[in-house]
Amino acid sequence: MNELIFIPLAGLGHLVSAIEFAKLLLNRDDKDICISVLIMKLPLDYGVQNFIQSLTSQPRLKFIDISLDEKTSSGFLNNHESFLYDFIDSHKSNVREYVQNIPRLAGFVLDMFCTSMIDIANEFNVPSYIYFASNAAFLGLCLHFQALRNEQNLDTSKYMNSNKELSISYFKNPCPIKVLPKHLLNSRIASTLFFDGIRRFKETKGIIINTFFELESFSLQALMDSEIVPTIYPVGPVVSFARSGHFRNNPSEIESIIELLNEQPDLSVVFLCFGSMGSFEAEQIKEIATALEHCGHRFLWSLRRSPPKGKIDIPSNYNNFEEILPKGFLERTKGIGKVIGWAPQVAILSHKSVVGFVSHCGWNSILESVYFGVPIVTWPLYAEQQMNAFLLVKELGIADEIRMDYVIDFEGRNNRVDVVNAQQIESALQRLMIKSEENEVRKKMKEMKEKGRVAMEEGGSSYTSLGLLINDVIKDIS
């Protein structure tokens, strides 16, 4: 049997999506391909270790730990700017050692940050593919700025803090610079290394994207018409139903949340959740609480404690919500809303009582929302999430906004704390609750849900694209 090597980044959004895609590929091809997923454990947990420990190999899908020892791995943290790329490069010998014992090597499927592993694929004379866990618009944006920097020698840092808009061929509308990821604009070492990796995309046999043509037809068509990229394979929406727990909640906690939702009327509950890295300081929490209490709608709010100042870590659960919420809030909203810690997101979004999703706009969360037809209210925090919010609101029309340009300052470089006021939050929630037949965002999201389901069925756009990928992989072997 022909073996594909998957090398994902061990961040939750990257790893879970890559594994779900591996399962999708194997379910489609039942005889020619097996997959080994090589796991490189990061020295910082970021909530991944529990998930990794839950992974069990099965026929045709193996999980291979190629991690370095803890001391060596942690040593890379000393160089903050190049940490991620040095860390990935340091695993090359372990990858090489595993791969050299494979009798029939079919190729490599690499995370967008793992492009240095193309060197190993070349050594063994097999093709490499990129698994791009974000969207087509972001891929286009990365390619656009890579060309500006590396081919036109443009100093993109001149755009920093600009209020201008740019015409970019992968977007229908002019794109505000303020929603662009900062690492596309600055001239720091990490940014340079990022674009060195993007440039190597052109060396691969193809780019697999977790999206579907009906969702991002404009961006995908622009990519497919471009001569600067290899074959594009849209295969989404790839959604992990296992994300309901990630083994952080015990079953009774999940059960109590679902029981609560079961007691609510259909399309009545607003769900607020901001991802594995999402948290707010006390002043912002007060504004959210004020908005929820004043608007009077049913809500389920995943509220997490921020890490200590200056410490890079994931948020944690509060022992007592009363220590951070306005005095009497829990009592006054009893029977209307509930505040929880870490949330079983997929289980909640799939529930018939949920009417909308106030989200940080991570791409996996967006696809989950699309899959279940739940309209989004955008509140991005970091990475490419501001651009995702722009895509949802302005390009696709399947979301409303609290903000599109909100950014969390993880490094504490900005003394001014950006606080969204309660009135702005409440206004977005009131728009979300407009009756279905009058709500264009809700109508468009419902339509996109159906298109996403059809895309994955036999004859659908993503089903066909996945078939083309499998054929291309097998053709290269024979």
UniProtKB/TrEMBL annotation:
Signal sequence segment: none
Top-rank lineage group of the source organism: Eukaryota
Keyword Glycosyltransferase: yes
One term of GO molecular function: UDP-glucosyltransferase activity
Keywords on record: Glycosyltransferase, Transferase
Enzyme Commission no: 2.4.1.-
SUPFAM superfamilies given in the database record: UDP-Glycosyltransferase/glycogen phosphorylase
Keyword Glycoprotein: no
Family membership: Belongs to the UDP-glycosyltransferase family.
Protein name: Glycosyltransferase
Organism: Nicotiana attenuata
